[in-house]
Design a protein that fits this description.
Blueprint: H1 2-20, E1 23-27, E2 35-36, E3 42-43, H2 45-57, E4 61-65, H3 68-77, E5 81-87, E6 97-112, E7 130-133, H4 137-144, E8 149-152, H5 157-163, E9 169-175, E10 190-205, H6 211-227, H7 229-236
Parallel strand pairs: 1-4, 1-5, 7-8, 7-9
Antiparallel strand pairs: 2-3, 5-10, 6-9, 6-10
């Protein structure tokens, strides 16, 4: 009887460990960081790094591509869920356990090419109307610092609002190697004006993810940097979107 109980306990322990090591990972469509290939498989520079991390640590996982707000909210509210590529800011620090950084980004103010106001520092933007994206780190960052933000559910509405003079600036994130936002209808009329912040981005995990797994993933990422795998994956997408 004791042998049966011991066996059942060990089986339960192994099952719990297997469940704990399985992750649901969410992301958004954001080339070349994350995108869906012609075969339907999610790929991209950040995606390939995440897949390599999972492989090196023997972690079972699945990746879902969703609108950013939903992807981010799932990682906040659902156990064993992580989201990438997530800007690590003071406002978000306690919400997640962090693996990374996996990339870096510049936060830029874009505006009309014919703008008439001076913009030499972020403080010059305090009296201006700034277009942001609901649930995005730039919206949180500017809002928490008292800037006049006007958030929308679709970020590509913002350049249209600029052209209609409904906002003065658009807060844009440009990751390393990413194509700058542009569209034939406004590519010459909406231009970058100022880099107002630089931020590192991470795989952000729900607090339910075990510390042991977070440590293993960070150690694997450090190994990827040491053995050149990280750089190789970076260079694979150097020309993407250009």
């Amino acid at each position: 009887m004791r042998l049966i109980i011991t066996t059942l306990f060990l089986l339960a322990t192994c099952t719990d460990a297997a469940v704990a090591a399985s992750l649901n990972i969410t992301t958004e469509h954001s080339p070349p960081s994350s995108m869906r290939g012609a075969d339907g498989v999610i790929t991209g520079r950040a995606t390939d790094k995440i897949r390599e991390l999972m492989s090196r640590t023997g972690t079972d996982y699945k990746i879902e591509m969703l609108p950013w707000k939903r992807a981010f909210m799932m990682a906040q509210t659902q156990g064993q869920t992580c989201v990438y590529s997530t800007s690590r800011t003071p406002e978000r620090e306690s919400l997640f356990k962090w693996v990374g950084p996996t990339d870096e980004a510049e936060w830029q103010f874009w505006g009309r090419a014919d703008h008439a106001f001076p913009l030499n520092s972020i403080d010059d933007a305090r009296k201006l109307r700034i277009g942001t994206y609901i649930g995005d780190a730039r919206d949180e960052y500017l809002r928490s610092r008292g800037f006049n933000v006007d958030a929308v559910s679709n970020d590509l509405v913002n350049p249209q609002k600029l052209l209609l003079n409904r906002i003065d600036l658009w807060a844009v994130a440009i990751r390393n190697g990413a194509a700058v936002p542009g569209h034939p209808d406004w590519s010459d009329q909406v231009v970058p004006l100022l880099v107002f912040h630089r931020v590192k981005v991470y795989l952000a995990c729900n607090p339910s993810v075990p510390d042991e797994l977070i440590d293993k993933l960070n150690a694997a990422l450090a190994d990827m940097r040491r053995d050149g795998s990280f750089t190789r994956l970076e260079r694979k997408y150097d020309q993407a979107g250009k």
